[in-house]
Every structure is written in C-alpha cells, then in structure tokens.
Design goal:
Length: about 400
C-alpha cells in the first residue's frame, strides 16, 4: 500500500427533509448565488424547499448550467457574481452544476483577490493549471442527481464546447463546506439520467480498483461492496424510480465511489475517463455512456497487466469460479458489458451514429498523452482500445 494523506472537510446531511437544514449551514450575512441547471428543480419541489429554507437571505439565482458544464456559461455566471457582489456559491442540481460551482468559485476568488492575474490570463488557465488555484468562494450543495461524487471531493470537470475541449482538474479549495443529500429529490430523474449516473459511479470505482495489485485489501473490499450495490440496485431503481430505499442506496454509493476513501494507498487508472472525455468533447455523447463504451475496451486491451485484480473482480463481484483464469477474466468483462446494457446504455459504436472515426480522431487528439495507472497507454493503444468497441 502506498503512503497517503486523507482529509475530507465536507459535511454531509443525508436523508428526507434535510434541505430545511440550509439556514443552519449558511451564515445569515452571506450573499448567496444559487446555481442550477435546466430548471427541473422548479418542477420537483426542490426550488420551493431551498427558497423556504433561505427566506430572508440575500439570494440571487443563475440557471442554465449544462450537463458537462460549458466554460462560456460559467463566465456569464462569473459576471453575475461580480455585478451583485456574491460571497457564497450554492449549487442546486447534479454533479455538473457543482463542478461549475467549483470553477466559478475559484475564478470569482481570483477576480476579487488577485485581479491583476486576469490582465494577462483568462479563467480557463485555472483549469489547465497555467494559473494556480489559490482560493475559492465558499461552496455548498443540494444534490439532486447522484453520479459524479463531486458533492464530497475536490474535483471538477469543465467543457469548452466551441473549442471541443473537456478538462478535469482539482484543488483542495473545491471541497464543498456541506452537501445535502435527500434521496427524495431524485424521484423525478429520467431513466436516462439515472442510468448515466450509475454507470459513472461504477466506472469511478473501477478506475481505482481494477489496476495492478498493490496490497490494499480494505480498499478492495470497500470497492467491491460499492460495485455489487450498483449492480443489484441499479436495474431495480429503473423499475421502481420512487422507491426511497433504492434511491438512497444509489445516492450513497455514488458518493462513496469518489470521495477518496477507496483510492487511498492504491494505484489508480483513469484511462477510461480520459478517453471518454474526448468522446464527449468531440461528439457530445453523455459522459456516463462514453464510459460504458470505453471501459470494456480498456479492460480487454489491458487484461494481462490487470489480471490479478480482474480475477478478484470476477470472483468477489460477479461470483465466478468455474474455469481457468482467462475464462474467468473474459466472463467478468462480458458481465460488465451486460450490466451497462441492463441499464439501457449502448456499449458499442453502432449504438451511437456518427462516431465511426473516433479511433482515429481521439487518438490523434491524445497523441502526446500517456495514460493509465503506469502511463503505459499511448495514442496507438488508445486507437486499439476504441477499435475493440466497433
């Protein structure tokens, strides 16, 4: 097991009726900007709950943040923060809204405290790392779509659609001060949104678990527990979308998948995410669906290097014991594909018209990258991985 340091300052409020706790979590003198997405919170009752909890606060709202939040939309929010002198960012929505809130909070901090930096740089440079993130406005979250784990981690992903770019980045300043997780807010999610979130969380776990062996049995058993929960509860919740217990288990699994615990001391991969981000940037495919396309290709291409962990996965997650090692590994990969398809998610190019040139285009865009747990995957390998998904 590798050395690690772990500190997670995010406070979670989990369960029914917890949106009412907002007034105890945000100081009364904060000037709050409420960020939200397409407006579903105005149909499912969340909007009213939030405004009731924050009655008497200096509150302005900014909506329209996309799934895979767009940089240019974030800049419009930044203008609103500057114009109205906001001091606290409240994300009400899914992980994309919260990812946007993290970037917006960091850019607003620079704008307020280090404005001279923006004379020679643009906010995008915070995402690329050209400008160091030195702080962020305080951030809170009301989560309505479990998927990304952003509610309890320091990560963010922002797209710049006009440039066909999608970048992940992180900062210790991005941990939300609090996140409210009420499973009832997820009752109205569409089947597609629910399935995408489950797939995203599943691959988050795999990226930290299906690598090479590194003597991390506690983390491995935790990861296997999350995967088995998603496998059993995922298809069930699609059939019973208003079942509180199913929604609660999915919501908690998605948070646990990427709050740092199962990755402590491990060797992590993230090749599927890196390739998947490019499929979204180039073709606009939902993030969760890109992962369902790419992950089986990565596992097939890397199955020799990952053989020890893939055998654990076959036995401890899928309960496979009959056959030699290669048979078990191949069956585990096949079961993974069937799981995604049980959620209604296509796993091959033929399910997504217009991406036939992805092997060439993605590998060319990632030409200078070396990805995977040992940086062993180059652009040639990326092309081969994607060819496996035709």
């Amino acid at each position: 097991m590798n050395n690690f340091t772990y500190q997670n300052p995010t406070r979670l409020e989990f369960g029914k009726g917890t949106i009412s706790r907002l007034s105890a979590l945000i100081p009364r003198d904060e000037k709050v900007i409420l960020l939200y997405g397409g407006g579903s919170i105005k149909q499912n009752g969340v909007w009213e709950q939030v405004h009731e909890a924050l009655k008497g606060y200096d509150l302005v709202s900014f909506g329209g943040i996309e799934a895979n939040p767009d940089y240019e939309t974030c800049l419009k929010s930044l203008e609103e923060i500057h114009r109205t002198s906001r001091t606290f960012v409240l994300s009400v929505g899914g992980g994309s809204v919260l990812d946007a809130a993290k970037f917006i909070g960091a850019a607003a901090w620079i704008q307020k405290n280090k404005p001279e930096i923006l004379e020679t740089h643009q906010p995008w440079d915070l995402i690329t790392g050209e400008v160091k993130i030195q702080g962020a406005l305080p951030i809170g979250a009301v989560l309505t779509l479990p998927a990304t784990g952003s509610e309890m981690n320091a990560n963010s992903v922002i797209s710049w659609r006009s440039q066909k770019e999608k970048r992940g980045f992180a900062s210790r300043h991005f941990y939300p001060q609090f996140s409210i997780l009420d499973p009832e807010t997820t009752f109205s999610l569409s089947e597609r949104q629910t399935a995408n979130g489950i797939a995203d969380a599943f691959v988050h776990v795999v990226e930290q678990y299906l690598t090479r062996e590194n003597n991390t049995p506690i983390q491995d058993r935790m990861a296997e527990g999350i995967l088995k929960t998603l496998i059993t509860e995922g298809p069930r919740v699609l059939k019973a979308p208003r079942d509180y217990d199913l929604r609660a288990n999915i919501m908690w699994a998605c948070t646990m998948a990427l709050n740092g615990l199962i990755g402590l001391g491990t060797i992590q991969d993230w090749a599927s995410h890196k390739i998947g981000h490019e499929l979204t940037a180039l073709y606009g495919i939902d993030h969760g669906r890109t992962l369902a396309i790419v992950l089986p290709g990565v596992l097939e291409h890397q199955k020799q290097a990952k053989s020890a962990k893939l055998l654990l996965y076959a036995k401890n997650v899928w309960g496979l014991y009959q056959g030699d090692d290669q048979v078990l590994i191949d069956e585990a990969i096949a079961r993974t594909v069937l799981f995604f398809e049980s959620l209604g998610i296509g796993t091959r190019f033929r399910d997504y018209p217009g991406i036939e040139n992805a092997p060439e285009e993605v590998s060319a865009k990632l030409n200078d990258n070396h990805i995977g747990e040992e940086k062993q995957i180059d652009s040639k390998d990326i092309r081969e991985i994607l060819e496996l998904r035709r």
